[in-house]
Amino acid sequence: MSKSKFLSFKLLFFVLFLLLLALAFYFVRGQERQSLPPPVEGQPVVALESEKVDVSKEKAKISPTPKEEALPFEFNLDIPFTSQAPHAIWDAVHEQTCEEAAVLMVARYFKKQKIDGPDDAEEELQKLIAWQKEKFGFFEDTTALETARILSEYYGLKTQILEKPTVQQIKKEVVAHHPVVAPANGRELKNPFFKQPGPIYHMLVIKGYTSDKFITNDPGTRKGADFVYKYDVLMEAIHDWTGEDASGPARVIVVQN
Q1: Which uninterrupted H or E stretch holds 197?
Q2: What is the CA radius of gyration of the chain?
Q3: Which domain holds residue 149?
Q4: I want to staple 246 with a disulfide (CB 3.0 to 4.6 A). Which of 34, 91, 133, 185 is the partner?
Q5: Same structural domain for residues 225 and 129?
Q6: What confidence tens digit (pLDDT) does each residue in 178-236 have?
Q7: What pTM did the predictor assign?
């Protein structure tokens, strides 16, 4: 075999090797993309006992730990979705409406109502903004406690603040049909669909889980319905607003009817 033919053979072998490597990579990535569990409607027959947050005292309360029980391998609540910019107008107002969008999604879930398009969502977001301006004097960057007040006072829902939540605690609440509203450092979420580098403070709804990921409705992107985050990524990002940045305590809002 001549030297040139030998080199051509080596080059062909190398190209085939790279092609096989690429095919193997895409096959593995395809296998990792688990199909999400079907969304679950309705309420459980027996709800977990809980205590309503006394928002007037401005003290976070820890919800009681339910009895240990086997949880489903995966679970997904049927919660309607809207982005925080229903008409895709990301102006100064709608960059701040993740909390309102999260609250709206949870409220419609308990009312068993859909979000009937962008106009419906936008109208409700504006009502929530007006209500907060009257109650708080502002609507931007509401803390977990302030967001819990919106849920309880505006929508009449029961709320609990869960301090230092664990993956298991969040999963138990979701299985009990209690959506979990999570404040977070938006940049730590590393969501590729955010306008980079991402929001300093963000809020989303945890509605389910798979074997290694939380299923969320993330209003920070139009692609946020059933958006999944790995457990460790979301848990490390969960932080309340301090008044200056999203470096406050790790806490979430558990919502019940």
Answers
A1: none
A2: 22
A3: 55-256
A4: 185
A5: yes
A6: 999 999 999 999 999 999 999 999 999 999 999 999 999 999 999 999 999 999 999 99
A7: 0.78
